[in-house]
Design brief:
mainly alpha, 2 domains, 22 helices
């Protein structure tokens, strides 16, 4: 009689989670390197504006710190100071924070769901076009993902960890205070507080916390948030921005609903804006809907309470300001993981005693995840790099700017960005009209050049339209 093999003795079975997390790490490192170095390539207007804000920070003038996302701009200013004004240094803070956010998301999913769900959901999440775009963008959008992940992960450690309890409380307090500097950063915190009030298990866990340690954590949070309070006191408009309320208070709710629908459900007509939409592919959205159903079925759990409270708080904000779609990424990933849990549980319930059927059921699930990963990467790479209406939103001028350029003539709309660049390149002079013998002129500033100058060189990019980016002029000697 043949000896029955135990599947638990197989190498791939025993090391499945280590191999899975290793695969997540390799894919994450690869796609971030690919996104940061090659796709989309260039800088958007938001990234250029971010450089202007980061360069404007001055320790001698505290009022310059009264801007949204100030922790991010401090990091970006440090990166520019260390590495100079390059596309890499502009994007570096987002790449680092994106990596930390992805690792934190993996750990969070590991704490909230089973290890197999955490691996699969992580693979799908880090290969979505939205995450890759935000993680490589030199604008502060990555903070909409980083802060909620940090809040939930460290908050979980506060209530569950039995070691370094004071350290986790202090870290959570610092994270809470830091997140308040980001627009809409207060809403995940409100969702957590509302869950604590409504859910008895979490309420009891919070009651058991050491009062002295909670007071110490509160003191740390207060110290960090004092500059923000002072900034809002001097500039009340900053408070409205942090709440996600647009400056022009005339929201068209119906139009915003249509825009939200296009951002998530218009699969047959991807957008032509800087952010490729719909945000998630059709397969991922189906898993999210299954996750919503699972959430309703398990509504008594702490996780369900938190996600439902979070969604209810964010919904009115998105109806007012639909451009802030990135804030939905983390709760959407949690719903996607819940959807995967429901699928696997349903299959196991069909074959409770047949180990071969249980294993065989994972094959189509793995194929599904592989398709979602492949389609996500394919959609991101081709969508951002080859779509003419999307690629034209990214300027390659910074890479095209010669390193030996001395005087650059720019238009009024370009002056702020190029002036910020000149702060990190001491040999670069930004002017509105030429004064030297040889000058470099941007495409938009050609009209500022008189007849006494002659074109000696044209610097172009790879685009079909408006490819002439810089003109090199030399003053005539006669």
């Amino acid at each position: 009689m043949a000896r029955r093999q135990d599947i638990t003795n197989f190498f791939f079975y025993r090391w499945r989670y280590i191999l899975g997390y290793g695969l997540v790490g390799l894919i994450l490192a690869g796609v971030l390197a690919f996104a940061g170095a090659f796709v989309p390539g260039g800088l958007t207007q938001d990234e250029q504006q971010s450089v202007v804000r980061s360069e404007s920070l001055t320790v001698s003038d505290i009022s310059t710190f009264a801007i949204p996302h100030v922790p991010y701009h401090i990091l970006q200013a440090g990166s520019l100071e260390l590495f100079g004004a390059t596309e890499f240094s502009i994007k570096l803070p987002s790449l680092v924070l994106g990596l930390l956010a992805a690792v934190g998301l993996v750990l969070l999913l590991r704490r909230w769901f089973k290890p197999n769900i955490a691996v699969l959901a992580s693979l799908i999440a880090v290969t979505t076009g939205q995450f890759l775009f935000i993680a490589q963008s030199g604008a502060p959008s990555i903070m909409y993902i980083f802060w909620p992940v940090a809040l939930l992960l460290i908050g979980t450690q506060v209530t569950r960890s039995k070691r370094f309890r004071l350290l986790w409380k202090l870290l959570f307090a610092a994270t809470v205070a830091g997140s308040l500097y980001t627009p809409l950063g207060i809403y995940p915190l409100l969702a957590i507080l509302l869950t604590i009030v409504l859910h008895p298990h979490l309420r009891n866990a919070v009651r058991r916390l050491s009062k002295a340690k909670v007071v110490a954590a509160g003191a740390v949070a207060t110290l960090i948030v004092v500059p923000l309070i002072m900034a809002i006191w001097s500039q009340p408009a900053l408070g409205l921005t942090l709440l996600g309320i647009p400056s022009a208070w005339q929201p068209d709710i119906l139009a915003n609903l249509v825009k939200q629908f296009e951002q998530y459900f218009l699969f047959w007509a991807p957008s032509a804006t800087a952010l490729l939409t719909p945000v998630f592919g059709l397969g991922s959205m189906l898993l999210i809907f299954i996750g919503i159903r699972e959430l309703i079925k398990t509504r008594a759990t702490t996780h369900s309470y938190l996600i439902m409270c979070w969604a209810l708080i964010l919904l009115p904000v998105l109806l007012i300001n639909p451009a802030l779609t990135s804030v939905v990424f983390v709760p959407a990933v949690l719903l996607l993981a819940a959807g995967l849990t429901s699928l696997i549980r349903y299959w196991y319930r069909l074959f409770p005693l047949n180990p071969y059927a249980r294993v065989a059921g994972l094959v189509p699930l793995i194929v599904l995840v592989a398709v979602l990963i492949g389609s996500g990467l394919d959609r991101y790479g081709y969508g951002y790099y080859y779509s003419p209406t999307i690629a034209s939103n990214f300027s390659q001028d910074l890479d095209l700017l010669p390193k030996d350029a001395r005087q650059v003539v720019v238009s009024g709309g370009e002056r702020a960005f190029y002036t910020s660049l000149s702060a990190y390149r001491t040999n670069l002079e930004i002017v509105g009209a030429p004064t030297s013998q040889t000058v470099l002129v941007t495409r938009a500033a050609r009209e500022a050049i008189g007849d006494e100058y002659t074109i000696v060189n044209i610097i172009t990019n790879t685009y079909k339209n408006e490819a002439d980016r810089f003109y090199q002029y030399q003053k005539s000697t006669d």
